[in-house]
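**Sequence with structure:**
===
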Amino acid sequence: MHHENSKSLSIVIPVFNEINFLSRLFEQIKKYFNDKYIEVIFVDDGSTDGSSNLLEELKLKNNYNFLFKLIKLDTNFGKGKAIQTGIKNSNGEYVLLQDADLELDCKDAKEMFDMILSNEDIKCIFGSRYLSGKLKKNNYFFNNLVGKFNSLIFNLFFSQSLSDVHCGLKILHRSVVNKINLSVNDFGIEIDLASQIVRNNFFIYEFGVSYFFRSKSQGKKITWIDGLKSFYYLIKARFLDNSTSTNLSIIYSSFYMAFVGSHFGMGLGNTLFIIIFFISGLVIGINFKILSSTIIFLSIFVGSLFGQGNGTSLSVFIFFILGLFVAIKSKNYFINSNFNNYF
């Protein structure tokens, strides 16, 4: 049951120079979210085109039932900072992130809200521009390619199966919001958000949404530079933003696996083996702490004592699989114990 000042939903909308879309967006919000238990938080991220004044005018209309909040930032910090500010000033049981440029439809946002309300087991839904048979308009091949490639890399790094990490339409339960601590100020916020949700063991559901791509002349902000920066954020989120025990394990596993790889092949082939084994070590370090990783290392060492030539390679591979199996079992056994940080 709602208390007088409680809200069921907070809609956070970052705004930077979107004067051509705000009136239509406002009408869409009134159509789908015109409820007194909903708050709509516009965060003006240092707009210079009159967006701030238009938002003031829309707020004064009083022809709506939801709570209209307007937050103004003195300068343009970036989408990530605007989202962080909006979330910090939200009170709803659910937080919906919605872009202001009408590339994404508020009707889909309402469907996502209804869906998460009807199932208490769902705590997080991401919109996806690549699922379902809904309307799409997208003739920018490179942006589309980068988005899909980034999602693929994210899935490899975090053992997920998401189709669209960068979609700006997302809804989170308050329990998710309370667990994350966002820090990225630009478009890398999408990777920052998704990685923290996964790290806190929340399952991300996906919902197919309509998508109407706009051109640079229509006010598109994201560029190919942001696409390149997203690769940095992926690496940072996976290999730097970890606990001390995980970072130690990554260093430890990558170096001993590179050492193992140095015993295979000759010349260029040897270098290739070292690189492959080094990357394998990074993955091992992400998923296993020091002790469980040591099990894998010792198993590989034992395997290297058997056979000769190609026979040694086969023996190492077999014992690697065996060590991986034992490490997984050990990790699962100690996962809820005081030794969890070591396995």
